[in-house]
Amino acid sequence: MKTEGFSRMEQTLYECLPSMQCREKVLIESMKYSLQAGGKRVRPLLVLAFARLCGGSEDTAMPFACAVEMIHTYSLIHDDLPCMDDDDLRRGKPANHKVYGEDIALLAGDALLTLAFETIASDRAAILAGDRACRLAAKTLASYAGATGMVGGQVIDLISENTNAPLEVLREMDFKKTACLIKAACELGCIAAEADEAQREAASLYGECLGIAFQIQDDILDRTASEDELGKPIGSDAENSKSTYVSLLGIERCRELVDELTQQAIEALDAFDADTSELRQFALDMARRKK
Question: Is the domain covering 6-288 a CATH 3.20.170.30 domain?
Answer without folding.
Answer: no
